[in-house]
């Protein structure tokens, strides 16, 4: 019998995710090798500071401070880009693909910013690009869309795609916890991005939404073409108001395609979800995604969305796919590179087509006639008020007004916010939360 093929793996990045991959791949190596019929050799890893003390031990001779040396090393078959960022990560990814290697990536920011270039490089040079870990941590949502649900078109995909934000919102809701220490804990647990504003301002979710929209619809949507709002203005009082109205609050990505009009909309924002919605009850670092296909109906996926172990699980699944690809050669839809067909060239939905109900929180002067002036602005934009909750605001002489609306649309609400901001009685920028009317 011939010796099994040995595949050399290089990790560019040995931080939270890289160390998780090393640890779990080493622990389960024999079983994986026997299932795949190849030898897997964790050959090299690149870091910024080779002298740093790390939780997972690695022989010093395997470390380099030059990730490009791994990408260009002819003995390395599989390059895992686990550094983050979009400059050196792009160079490493493109270099490895130009050598025809398999690149495994957890880097959603890179895919969102440079996806077309990366896919073109893979196709031109015979390389392959796998990215299961880039969206929803340990949930195999990329595989679900590319493989399990390939028979479908997708009128709606929505869900929680950022573990850090869901962890923060859960702590605020359940323990009335202040924002800053909860964010610090999410960082300590290895959930947050190196630049945490990517998490809390919604951009990380937007990067992931762009990847899902591309897989589902074959269209690259840039964050600049989406509504992207983060969680930093949500207060414990918003949770209390939402609960009074029968809702929870989650940061969601919402990707909808009107199949009749061929309009696509991709948005990221805090969302009121009915307390009975399963996703409203997904807490902590967990992510959850609802995918509605025109053939299958609605399917639901949940699991840890960030952190060392969940993310390592997704990276190792890509390494296993890479091993199968390198052992058996190209072929088969299951192992094809990530080329999403441009399905029907849909266009982005205009603001009037994006419709839902809204929650509006205003801090106003507590004076006669103020509520009437607010209502009049909304009436002029044909925004119909469904309910009003008034309570004292922290500032003396001010009141907090929470208005919910009947169904309206993005253009009407944008104009309403602009006009409300100009009222002298409105003391700070209004906070808008959209309602998730998904049933
Ligand atoms: P991390 O803990 O900050 O680790 C980054 C690693 O890359 C470190 O080992 C760092 O070296 C190395 N590195 C950074 N810049 C480098 C450079 N210029 N040259 C050489 N090495 C460099 O980050 P992470 O949390 O593991 O995230 C890595 C990637 O996975 C990111 O794209 C992130 O978005 C993605 N991701 C993370 C998670 C998660 O839960 N953490 C989940 C899914 C996806 P040093 O150790 O010497 O600093
Ligand atoms: N910072 C990201 C999150 C990591 O919290 O979801 C996983 O992509």
Search tags:
six-stranded parallel beta sheet, binds NADP nicotinamide-adenine-dinucleotide phosphate, Alpha-Beta Plaits, Dihydrodipicolinate Reductase, domain 2, eleven-stranded mixed beta sheet, 36% helix, 439 residues, alpha/beta, 25% strand, 3 domains, binds L-homoserine, Rossmann fold, single chain, 14 helices, elongated
Rg, nearest Å: 24 Å
Low-pLDDT runs of 5+ residues are 331-339
Task: Note the beta-strand portion.
Answer: 25-35%
Q: What's the CATH first level of the largest domain?
A: Alpha Beta
The helix content, as a percent range, equals: 25-40%
Number of strands: 19
Distance between the termini: 58 Å
> Per CATH, which architecture of the largest domain?
3-Layer(aba) Sandwich
- Please state the oligomeric state of the protein chains shown: single chain
For this structure, what is the CATH homologous superfamily of the largest domain?
Answer: NAD(P)-binding Rossmann-like Domain
Please state the structural category.
alpha/beta
Average predicted local confidence, pLDDT: 95
Hetero ligands: NADP nicotinamide-adenine-dinucleotide phosphate, L-homoserine
Helix count from the secondary structure assignment: 14
How many structural domains?
3
Q: What would you call the shape? A: elongated
The CATH topology assignment of the largest domain is: Rossmann fold
Largest sheet: 11 strands, mixed
């Amino acid at each position: 019998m011939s010796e099994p093929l040995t595949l050399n793996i290089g990790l560019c990045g040995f931080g939270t995710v890289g160390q998780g991959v090393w640890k779990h791949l080493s622990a389960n190596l024999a079983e994986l090798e026997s299932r795949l019929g190849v030898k897997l050799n964790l050959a090299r890893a690149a870091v910024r500071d080779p002298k740093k003390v790390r939780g997972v031990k690695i022989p010093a001779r395997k470390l380099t401070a030059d990730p490009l040396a791994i990408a260009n090393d002819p003995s390395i078959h599989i390059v895992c880009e686990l550094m983050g960022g979009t400059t050196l990560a792009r160079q490493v990814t493109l270099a490895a693909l130009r050598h025809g290697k398999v690149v495994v990536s957890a880097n959603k920011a890179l895919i969102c910013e440079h996806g077309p270039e990366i896919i073109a490089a893979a196709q031109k040079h015979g390389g392959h690009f796998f990215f299961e870990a880039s969206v929803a941590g340990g949930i195999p949502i990329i595989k679900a869309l590319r493989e399990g649900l390939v028979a479908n078109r997708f009128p709606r995909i929505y869900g929680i795609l950022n573990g850090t934000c869901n962890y923060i919102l859960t702590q605020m809701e359940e323990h009335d916890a202040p924002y800053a220490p909860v964010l610090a804990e999410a960082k300590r647990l290895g959930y947050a991005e190196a630049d945490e504003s990517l998490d809390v301002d919604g951009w990380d979710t937007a990067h992931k939404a762009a990847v899902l929209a591309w897989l589902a619809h074959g269209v690259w949507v840039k964050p600049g073409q989406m509504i992207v709002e983060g969680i930093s203005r949500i207060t414990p009082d918003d949770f209390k108001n939402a609960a009074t109205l029968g809702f929870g609050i989650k940061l969601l990505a919402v990707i909808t395609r009107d199949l009749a009009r061929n309009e696509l909309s991709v948005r990221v924002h805090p969302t009121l979800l009915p307390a009975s919605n399963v996703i409203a009850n997904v807490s902590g670092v967990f992510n959850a995604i609802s995918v509605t296909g025109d053939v299958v109906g609605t399917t639901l996926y949940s699991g840890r969305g960030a952190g060392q172990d969940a993310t390592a699980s997704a990276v190792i699944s890509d390494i296993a796919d890479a091993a199968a690809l390198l052992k058996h050669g190209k072929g088969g839809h299951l192992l094809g590179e990530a080329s999403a067909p441009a399905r029907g060239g849909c266009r982005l939905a205009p603001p009037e087509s994006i419709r839902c109900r809204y929650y509006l929180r205003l801090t106003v002067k507590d004076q006669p006639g103020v509520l009437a002036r607010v209502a009049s602005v909304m009436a002029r934009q044909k925004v119909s008020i469904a309910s009003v909750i008034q309570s004292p605001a922290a500032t003396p002489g001010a009141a907090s007004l929470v208005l919910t609306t009947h169904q309206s649309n993005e253009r009407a609400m944008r104009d309403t916010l602009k006009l409300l901001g100009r009222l002298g009685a409105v003391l700070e920028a209004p906070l808008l939360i959209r309602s998730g009317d998904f049933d």
